[in-house]
Amino acid sequence: MTTTLITGANKGLGYETARRLIAAGHTVYVGSRDEARGRDAAERLGDGARAVQLDVTDDASVAAAARTIEADGGLDVLVNNAGVEARGPDNGVAAAADVTADLMREVFETNVFGTVRVTHAFLPLLRRSASPVVVNVSSGLASLTYVADPAHPASAYPGVAYPASKTALNMLTVQYAKAFPAMRINAVEPGFTKTDLNGNTGTQTVEEGAEIIVRMAGLGPDGPSGGYFDVTGPLPW
After folding, report:
1. Own/partner pairs, 46-50, CB within 8 angstroms, 24+ separation
2. Which of 15, 29, 146, 162 is catalytic?
3. Which among 15, 29, 146, 166 is annotated as catalytic?
4. Which residues pair with residue 51 across a beta bridge?
5. Most buried by CB count within 10 Å: which residue of 16, 50, 165, 180?
6. Is 166 tagged catalytic?
7. pLDDT, tens digit, for every residue of 143-200?
């Protein structure tokens, strides 16, 4: 039995990934900042789902989740899915003129430091697994190649904090993969998916977006590590 933890799993891509992995035979811990929403999501997902309160920005919350999952038997797959976007004065994407150090810090607290916090806490459990996997949910906006190319749609994105946080996440992915060669650790780009993160303005469904997350969560020991992928294959950094 494969045991998986997904952060931010009570809705959107996290929820759909949980649904798909449960269908594939995983036991999935539905990580949720709000305990009640997490319990509701786990109940809707049914057998194979277990709710765990987990706020990636809070050391005590993450430590408690790690203790719970360790006591239940351990962990094989970690999906770092929880993420936030920076909003400007009009509640749209915070463009360069709107970005402050405090706003940048808020985004990095979840998207970067949160990933480090959770990964660090669960490394001891993952290292005991026979086939440990980490999937970091990144973005096409993390690609410096794409964002710097005027011909690519990503170059039109006005935000600063979110792309910078996801580029940092990609670097974490590479460095963790080198440090832990026995693990399969990769970053994935789900695509522009309709979720609360973008006000449901995405152009694809959560079913489509979750495909690459599910695929990489199911890697065996011979799978790639230290890469950056979407459903079509490797992406340029």
Report:
1. 46/22, 47/22, 48/22, 49/18, 49/22
2. 162
3. 166
4. 30
5. 165
6. yes
7. 999 999 999 999 999 999 999 999 999 999 999 999 999 999 999 999 876 565 555 5
Q: What is the CATH number of the domain that holds 154?
A: 3.40.50.720
Question: Is residue 138 classed as helix, strand or coil in its secondary structure?
Answer: coil
Compute the Cα dihedral for 160, 83, 22, 208 and give only its sign: negative
Domain tally, the chain: 1
Does 178 qualify as catalytic in the annotation?
no
Residues 233-237: contacts with CB within 8 Å, 24+ apart?
A: 235/140, 235/143, 235/146, 235/189, 236/143, 236/145, 236/146, 237/143, 237/144, 237/145, 237/170
For residue 87, the tally of other CB atoms under 10 A from its CB is 17
pTM metric for this prediction: 0.94
Residue with tokens 């480090």: 116
Range of the structural domain that residue 138 is part of: 3-234
CA distances, 28 to each of 5, 23, 40 (Å): 6, 10, 14
User: Which residues are 79's β-sheet partners?
Assistant: 6, 135
Predicted pLDDT at 86: 85
